[in-house]
Amino acid sequence: MDVFGLFNLPLWVIILVAVLILFYRYQTKNFGVFKKMGVPFPSPWPMMGNARVVFKKGFVEAYEEWFKTYGRVFGHFEGQQPMLVVGDLDMLREITVKEFNSFTNRRDFGAAEIAEPPVTEFLTVLQDDDWRHNRNTLTPAFSGGKLKKMIGMIVEAGESFVAKLKTKADNGEPVDIKGCTEAFTMDVIAATAFGMKLDTQISPDDPFIKYARKFFDIKLNMAFIILFFFPFLTPLIKIFKLEISPKVSIEFFRNVVNQALEERRKNPGKYSDFLQLMVNAKKEADSAAENNDGSHSNGAVDEAGGDDTGGDDTHWKDKRKGKGLSDSEILAASILFFIAGFDTTASTLAHLLYHLALNPDHMDKLIDEIDEHYPNGKAPDYETVGKLSYLDMVVQEGLRINPPFARMDRVCKRDVTIKGIHIPAGMTVALPIYMIHHDPGYWTDPEVFDPERFTPENKEKHHPLQWIPFGYGPRNCIGMRLALFEMKVIIVQLLQRYRFVPNSKTKPLKFKDNPLLSNTKDGVWLTAEHRK
Length: 532
Description:
The chain is an alpha+beta fold. It has one domain: CATH 1.10.630.10. The protein has helices spanning 11-27, 33-37, 51-70, 89-98, 111-114, 128-138, 144-171, 177-194, 207-215, 222-229, 235-239, 247-266, 274-290, 327-358, 360-373, 382-385, 389-401, 433-437, 456-461, 480-497, and strands at 73-78, 81-86, 174-176, 408-411, 416-418, 421-423, 428-431, 498-501, 525-530. The protein is globular.
């Protein structure tokens, strides 16, 4: 048929062909961006980009393959969304610290358009000044002084963990240690953040555990397909009420937090936990605003990002100066605390005990250090836990070999050139944490569990971004200090009484195919043995 024969086709056929051509051009419009940037990338497919490889192999295996092929800096496409992956540490340092004000925000997947509060007010989703204001308000909750006050609650939750293992140890029964660590971390969160006493250790079907797990049960549903492959259809997610995050989990924790707030209204002055800190901050700010005497400090620049929220810009204008968090922001921060502090810490603990069980020499060395500082089963205390140098090395190695997340990301707000690569505004940059932690160019024998990597002498040789399980720079994990402290306390309590060994159900760790490395497929099965 010649070209003039097209005019003899039915009109609907011509329209269909035109629509398909336009759709193809729309889906592939970004596919030339990495070529312009001079960055290598795997050939993308229309609509899917390179997502087919990720869905088939998972993030870790796909990134391993691309690292070997293209080097430490490459691009790939999630649908039509270009993703610049940066494993070069000097370049990452520029992105996370020196050019932080160009990379302040995380990718939000259109949260403002498709989600509702409290999800839109999660600290992980907030942007620019809203994020800075919330971060500054919440940071004092994780100070050393606050952690010192939490030690008793953490120890109490740990005693329940130890008691739960006794029957299993008496009978030599295998136990899914991940289930135990989940219950422990939930008990700690409830106590330290909300003044609640749970005992999920003896109730595996406890609703707190059930709904927290459900939140992390990430599946490829219609909403995710639209977000990744058809972003122009994003409004349909809200119109048809498609579920991104499990609403049943959000509602459960919303009710829990509202009940806790009501209890504080009835009994003011009784609590000194995370929730009360936010309530007090709001009262103080509201009172100051009434007296026209609000004040706000955004802190000094700290490259590691522990308490800083300003990057290299210390003159940002806080439009909410002198104001605390709103009621909806307090609710959002509380729910996120429940959810984010649950799975990541629980998984890191379970994986760490797994590695100790498979490396008894390291476990015995750690037990010797614990016995030296805590003779006769003495309960852990804040000051001494901080002096256990080998414990610190073990925890750091555990977080290196199995970081909670495979990657984090930042969105470029304005055109910027870093190490000769021009990054356009709107580009998403991935921090490939797992790949950096397993890069043989940065670590000798990276698949081997070896705490000696973190002796003071060896740490001096590390690049500052060689170990980033909590991210890096001002937008790192706000709960990092609590997570580290919590893990160290429970490890002391467990190893005072037990040694952990593998059993017939112990399998190599395999992870579900999503960015959350914490989601293991087959559990973490170990046997706890009474120490002689």
